[in-house]
């Protein structure tokens, strides 16, 4: 008997690396309007194919077509465009502020603005998001004050979180935005618990869980799917696939599974895959899943196919691990440009109004920044008290912390 | 001596005791859950085998039948999922009291406990809070081997934002558990499983005793709390202070009786926040201290106790503080009683410390 061929070890590799030519030939993109829209009470097994497709509404000319065209007015779409533009401008200013040494760290949303901005509009005012660090659109599209966001980023004397959290780890119960941990994936299962609680109390509110492609590999993601499936929790399970987990391409977390959406199928959770750079499609799919949860029909898993056009964070340089111009080759384009084109094609917008709005938003963001900086930045001006180190560890200060606070002399 | 130290021993008259039911530790824990669920609709109870069956140790028996499946239910075998969902529920405004089947199984939930439950109030500046109780059977003495015998309390006391409780008897178990459920912060509630059905002094070769014969099995049916952060002196003495909790309180009392050393036995009850005042008052009086626990020695909670006694009582000490603990090994199966720090090991330490100069 001949000995078998020795085993070999498999490590997936992205299509191209620095110096190579960007290659998205592996990303199969259906035509806008081509994917069917099932009723929200559809059985999960009847829509398994949707976990492998991509729901799209905006075509190349910027026209909205097909069964997923949402009922958003032109005014609402203009508002959506403004939210995305505000987020992009906010990012640019805060990125610069970090480079100027005004804070330690920042994380941009470039290329992914549609996902969180559109989702927030689809959600009810009292619902609760359990976000990651790249969903600030949930705050901006819900009119959270830019000054408060900046004060958090600067960890200054007006920081709502009293200087305790890394920049962008916001928290606002009032705005349906759960405290960001910075520990990956933990929030995904907490969202399911929040949704279970809402069902236990026979409430009408639902939860939205957020996670990136890379951290779906954490066990919390799988625990969340088990619990959501078992208890039919009223939760929308959002996976933002921006192709890159720092330097690790999405294939390392996805493995042999065709898509991240397909992860839901084994749990009997209906799964949709959507063009995350298409504001209209993202809104429509979110609305479908939210309605489903609200009608007590249980969880939905949504994979947003998008692209992280910027660096992971201010501590990252993507040119070290992916082709320099890869983002320009991303086949789903830019969410701001696509919605702008759509509005122009619909006669509701113009290049001139766009430029004007850009200038107006920049002025607003700069004014907010001036106001925030008056309360201090990380290394200068007003800062939270050393006393704040000891508060909120417990509801009441225990004796050992009282002794330690005395040692620091505050 | 402050009155709280006598909260259990002799705090009620004989006739009151006669009127009181006697409970095992299991029944007392079940009663605490029952009372809490009856008083507050926001209290929910779940975990592996917790619902229909009532838990592998029977602590939740009858609760699903009484309060319905939305208040007491079975969970998938996922400690990360059980604690993670409970954190979400607590953030919503419920008061979940979840069971992990054994403390040895808590590691998949550790990230959720340490990075999430413990820090939620802090990192959100009080915007979100986590009033959550995580119950888990702890300690050995039941031939559970390495995966059903561990005492991981130091892994919790080391974490800022958690409270850690270890009751030693039915009366305290009920009062402390109700207090934990009513507490605004996450509480780790470690139940010494060898004490579930009777007090255990470490004499494994003697007949098992039932709680019914023990004074602290007299447990009121209704609502009461035993405050978190307050120790109790189980035996007053002059020669040496023994700091113990859980099963080891009974071991300490037995060793004291057998050696005749006039030791003061303090039952810590809550490890964090710690009742340092009671400890310091006792050691200042006796001048000697033995720290006793079942967990491994190195970086165990005894190390913290020893350091605190040294910091606060140095000029009163007449001998080095001694630690009597489990060995720095995994918990063995066949050699359980060679591992367990029973009355013989403590007795030797007592004799040594009173002679030490």
From TrEMBL, chain A:
Gene3D superfamilies xref list: 3.40.50.970
EC numbers, comma separated: 1.2.4.4
Cofactor(s) listed: thiamine diphosphate
Stored SUPFAM superfamilies: Thiamin diphosphate-binding fold (THDP-binding) (SSF52518)
GO BP terms: branched-chain amino acid catabolic process
Record flagged with keyword Oxidoreductase: yes
Catalytic activity: N(6)-[(R)-lipoyl]-L-lysyl-[protein] + 3-methyl-2-oxobutanoate + H(+) = N(6)-[(R)-S(8)-2-methylpropanoyldihydrolipoyl]-L-lysyl-[protein] + CO2
GO function term, MF aspect, one: branched-chain 2-oxo acid dehydrogenase activity
InterPro entries: Alpha-ketoacid_DH_E1_comp, DH_E1, Oxoisoval_DH_suAlpha_N_dom, THDP-binding
Annotated ranges, domain Dehydrogenase E1 component: 83-377
Keyword field contains Oxidoreductase: yes
UniProt keyword list: Oxidoreductase, Thiamine pyrophosphate
Domain of life: Bacteria
Chain segments carrying region Disordered: 1-32
Domain 2-oxoisovalerate dehydrogenase E1 alpha subunit N-terminal: start-end pairs: 5-45
Described purpose of this protein according to its UniProt entry: The branched-chain alpha-keto dehydrogenase complex catalyzes the overall conversion of alpha-keto acids to acyl-CoA and CO(2). It contains multiple copies of three enzymatic components: branched-chain alpha-keto acid decarboxylase (E1), lipoamide acyltransferase (E2) and lipoamide dehydrogenase (E3).
Protein's UniProt name: 2-oxoisovalerate dehydrogenase subunit alpha
Species in which this protein is naturally found: Bradyrhizobium huanghuaihaiense
